[in-house]
Every structure is written in structure tokens, then in C-alpha cells.
Amino acid sequence: MRKEFLPFSKPDVSENAIQDVCDSIRSGWLAMGPKTVDFENKFATYTGAKYAISVNSATAGLHLAAMATVQIGDEVITTPMTFASTVNAIIYAGAKPVLVDIDPHTFNIDVNKIEAKITPRTRAIIPVHFAGRPCDMDKIEAIAKKHNLAIIEDSAHALGASYHGKRVGFGRGEKRIAVFSFHPTKNITTGEGGMVTTSDEKIAEQISVQRQNGMSKGAWNRFAAKGNANYDIAIPGLKYQMMDIQAAIGRDQMNYLEAFNARRTEIVNAYNNAFADLAAMTLPPPIEEGNIHAWHIYTPLLNLKELDFTRNEFMAKMKERNIGTAYHYQALHLFSAYKEITGLNKGDLPVAEDVSERIVSLPLFPKMTDNDVQDVIEAVLAICR
Ligand SMILES: *Cc1c(COP(=O)(O)O)cnc(C)c1O
């Protein structure tokens, strides 16, 4: 058995980034400033979006994106197979989340079930690229065009993914926004942090002002040597900026992103080969032709009929072997708060509910050694065979 505990995820931050964080602290400019601007520019270039606006979390980015596209009393369509912040952002923008069941293979929103949930109050769709696999954006785009809806891509899992030759977050056009997360488990990290990308100038302007309490100019533009201390507030905002301390890590992480994702893919291939004949597991399907998967998480389904234990018991057995796992996610309508807000009950989204009970996330992060990968494979085979 392993001597050391293997977590299901762990970030990889370079010595250069650590030095650059120290530099920010020693220089006296800790909050948003030149490093944040540099990180934003790098991010815009990488994704291909006209604007990249940094924020202090994806939750903040989703909130600002919702505030920019919906009004109080509107409805927003999204998936139950996501983190709470996707629906929290909708709720705190004053709208109602409307959950649509997921595809049983990709675990992305089932595009064939979206139109049935559209009402005259629907204003936006928030697809989540689950695990880093792009949603069927052609179909979602067609529905959005037909009903004049905004699209906010929750791309927290999908940095580096691409759909039909274009990077997720490239900036699809008017009322099109993508939001990324830099939480330590994500494809790159800044500790906490997030990025909003769009090519809609009006929305970019609103979000960049609303992340700094509505001030027309950030501190960098007011207090730096060439700054001007005056500012206006044309629209009230919140305090959602990124700090240079975070951006120092983020701009360095961008240099490693492609290598990180290549290593993630390598580990996924090793898992897929090792578990190919395992009746107890249904593996993630191959990535659709022409797309790139970002492999934020590796999420097989346990075929409980083949096993005499539950998913939670499987996780406990892995832990006994010193291997950490997680699960993403419990379908949101099964949480008490959202049951009430969405008006949904157990039985209403059967695919998401079934997946909720069987899904598990195995360790997946670039720093994993081949030995770590082998330990996970051996543990899974020993438990499931
Ligand atoms: C991580 C995550 C978020 C929230 O990101 P934070 O940066 O932690 O706020 C939102 N949506 C999804 C799908 C996520 O996985």
C-alpha cells in the first residue's frame, strides 16, 4: 500500500511564480495592478477573446455575467450537474434557475431538452462544460439565436478545451460570455481567482466597472505615478477584483497550461486502458471529433449492479488504500435550498439523479507520477474486480 496519501487533486506552482508573489509583496503593490493587466492580456490572447476581465473567483465572474444579462424575475436555464455557484449567481442576479436534465454519456446539459423549458421569461442559458468536455455549442447557439437568449459558458473546467477548432472562451459575439476558475483544483490556479472572457464591448465595460464597486477607474489608474485620482460611478458594483499577488501566479501558470493539460490527457489514457474491460465501471466516452477535452476531472460511473457496495463505500475503500477521491456532483435540485427554489423533486431529473449516485472522481493532476497513476489503477482493480 502507498505510504503517502495521494490527494485527488493538487496544484503545481513554479518557483518563478513564488518569487513573483514575493516581488509583489515587497514592491508594496499587492492589489490589482500591472501584473493583473498582464495576466488578462495573456489570457485574452490564449482564448482569442477581445476582452479578458479578471475577478477574485469564478463565482464572482458568474454573478457579474448574470447581472449583465438578466433582470429580476427572469429565468435562466442551466444544468443540475454543476457546482452550487452556477445557480447561486443566477439567484443573486434576481433570476430563477431552471434546471434541464443531462445527457447520460457526456453529463453535459441535454440540448434536446432545453427548448421545452423556455418560457417568455427566459433570458439566458448557462451551459457547463462538464469535466472539460465542450457542450454541443452549435445546438445551444441555435436555440439562443431563435429565442434571443444570452449564453454564459461556465468554463470552470474547460481552460484549454476547444470546440470545432476554437478555444472555449474565444468570444462568440453579442451577449456571449465565458467564465473560468483558478481555484487550486482547476486546470491552472491563482489560489482563488477567475476570468471572464467576452467580445461584447458593452458587457466587458459593465463587468470591468462592476467588479470594482462601479468605479470608472481602478486603483492602478488612480494611484500609480501617472494616475488621476478622479473617478465617476455610473453603475453600482461589487468588490470582485483580482490582486497582483494572485495574477503573479496566474500569468506564470499560463506558461504551463498546455503541458499540464497534455499530462492530464496522458493520465486519462492510462486509466481508460487499464479499466477498459472492467464491468464495474462505465468510462467517459471518447472526445467528439474536432474537439479538445481539458480533462479537469476523470469521472467514471460505477455500475452498482455489478458491485456489492455504494459509491461512498468505494470512496472509503480507496481512502483505506491512502488514495483520495471526490465526486462531482450531487444533482443540485437534491440540495434542500435548491429543491425549494427550483420547485423540483427527486424523480424530476432522472439522469442527473442516477449519475449523482454513481459518479466518482479519481486522482488527476499534472504532478502525479507514473507510480501514483499505477497505485490508483491497482487500487481500483483490487476493489472492483
Ligand atoms: C469551481 C467551479 C465554479 C466556481 O469557481 P470558484 O472560482 O471557486 O468560484 C463554478 N462552476 C463550476 C462548474 C466549478 O467547477
Provide structural commentary.
The protein contains 13 helices and eleven strands. The protein is of the alpha/beta class and 385 residues long. Strands 1-9-8-5-4-2-3 form a seven-stranded mixed beta sheet, sandwiched between helices. The protein has a two-stranded antiparallel sheet with strand order 6-7. A hairpin with a 2-residue loop joins strand 6 and strand 7. Helix 1 runs antiparallel to helix 8, helix 2 packs parallel to helix 8 and helix 3 packs across helix 6. It is globular and about 70 Å long. The mean pLDDT is 97. The protein binds pyridoxal-5'-phosphate (PLP). Pyridoxal-5'-phosphate binds next to helix 3 and helix 4.
Largest sheet: 7 strands, mixed
Topology as H/E string? HHEHEHEEHEEEEEHHHHEEHHHH
Strand content: 5-15%
- The shape is globular
Output the radius of gyration: 21 Å
Give me the side-by-side strand order of the main sheet.
1-9-8-5-4-2-3
**How many H/I helical runs?**
13
The overall average pLDDT, rounded, is 97
Which ions, cofactors or small ligands are bound in this entry?
pyridoxal-5'-phosphate
| Total beta-strand segments | 11
Please give the share of residues in helix. Answer: 25-40%
| Regions with little confidence, pLDDT below 50 for 5+ residues | none
| Helix vs. strand class | alpha/beta
Cα end-to-end separation: 18 Å
